[in-house]
Write the structure tokens for this entry.
Amino acid sequence: MVGQLADKVAVVMGSGRGIGAAIAQRFSNEGATVVIVDVSDRAAKACAGRIGASAIPMRCDVANEDDVAATLTTAVAHTGGLDILVNNAALGSATPMVETTRADWDRVLGITLNGTFHTMKHAVPHLRRRGGGAILNISSIAGRHGMPSMAAYSAAKAGVDALTRTAAVELRADNIRVNAIVPGMIRTAAAAAATGPLSTALGMPVEEFITDRQQRWGEPDEVAAVATHLAGGDASFTTGMFYLLDNASSLMP
């Protein structure tokens, strides 16, 4: 059986672990050659090792535009082209706004928002040479709702949403589709590590918040399934859309 991403080349930023790793694995299962990009060389290599021969690990700091440009050029040289870009690299925060330092603010936006801009900007010429393709940005409900102690992260994700809308309009003539997934709380190692600060920020235990708002944790594989659909041919007329993946928590007052 031929997968829906057969013969495609996908670069997945921030894919050493968590949601990004799940997307990379699903893309590979569907026939794509996947470039695993992460700021941690060890994490990128470990993820590629789990996936197998169809995965190529690379290290990149998305906050550094020159590094991004060079990484994409190298990836294309290794694979022959680029069809799909996934922006999953992000840095969270759990600090009250008035306690957020300028350095922390700049670091969160530098990775989460600027990094998304850098990768989209430098991926577009490669996608144009293929006659089009798909860009998928991983956003967050934090960019749409008032989330205590998440000023920098929320601002960055709201910026990702705005960038997605603008790019979708600009790039549709190039047959480049730009969409975003907007997850709620997803069960990842990063989320588990932030349980304490998140509980403080939310004013209640994270598990209580999850039960009240989402009923349960979302799973990385559930995000990966949606990502595969949006990257594939079945979504050929879908661009500028935001796929809420939060078990209807955004619909609650």
Q: What stands out?
A: The chain has a mean pLDDT of 94. The longest helix spans residues 151-171. The two ends are 45 Å apart (CA to CA). The chain is about 45% helix and 15% strand.
